[in-house]
Amino acid sequence: xxxxxxxxxxxxxxxxGLSPSSVRVLCEAGHQxxxxxxxxxxxxxxxxxxxxxxxxxxxxxxxxxxxxxxVKVKEPxxxxxxxxxxxxxxxTYLHLAADRALTEHLIDCGVTxxxxxxxxxxxxxxxxxxxxxxxxxxxxxxxxxxxLERQQGGRGLxxxxxxxxxPGKVVILGGGIVGTEAARIAVGMGARVQIFDVNVERLAYxxxxxxxxxxxxxxxxxxxxxxxxxxxxxxxxxLIPGRRAPILVSRSLVQQMRPGSVIIDVAVDQGGCxxxxxxxxxxxxxxxxxxxxxxGVPNMPGAVPWTATQALNNSTLPxxxxxxNQGLEALKLDSTLGKGLNxxxxxxxxxxxxxxxxxxxx
Length: 362
What we know:
The protein is an alpha/beta fold. The chain has 13 helices and 15 strands.
């Protein structure tokens, strides 16, 4: 099969869909891989690395896109819509629940679109979302600590404090992978940490990880309203696969936070769970609203592209290989991969995304 790897076009998105080692595996299996020139440069992966792995370097986006299977990292942006075509397999993060325009175009163009974030194991784990969730959770606190600095617009607080001065307070909404990793870094920095979740079993599991170092609370409106005004760093880490994240923090609640506090919503690519949060970019990552610093970069792992590309490929390669070897049949033979299917034959087929856009179901 011919496989295309375009260069990512999202703002400062330096990850790449396939690493040279993945290209080598695919080429050894008899496939041809066409990589747009400099697609991996931002992650420290040179064209020569891909050539040595057996790949072919092409000079234009169209030459990478015009293949049976296209492997990316982030969703196609509007300038890339022209490259999507009937019968093509697209394998990437899509997050359609927050992007009606892309959803409509994928339906109209006849592409078969498989989303990394909805590939689901029988135990409901999301193997292709997990590595990026780990990175995003860890970066959330790393970025939060940075933007609490006065020069970055924050209130000038050292998250871990020092002897004689209280540490900062980190409130994390959601105890999944993102929330767990955010807590791991925040605890390591010496911050006071609270995690909110509606799953009591998950909270019990988190107690085995953190013991008394983290305050674990059942997520209710009353509990959140009591905790958020006192937060120095608020991390949104809510995930409902395929669906928009629910709004858990209202504007009126943000207004009660101290000026210079920081909000980082990792759920922004699924619509966000904080009313005042809107998508930003690595170039312009923050804005001030209601006196609070807001960070809403949807491709946060793009800040560490070498690590993120390796981690993503470790998880995606087995599925890319199945698609290359078996084509559409792979979606039937592997139920885990099949659950990643979002759009096929001019139809929106993923049940959760259908609930977000019922009028697009034909």
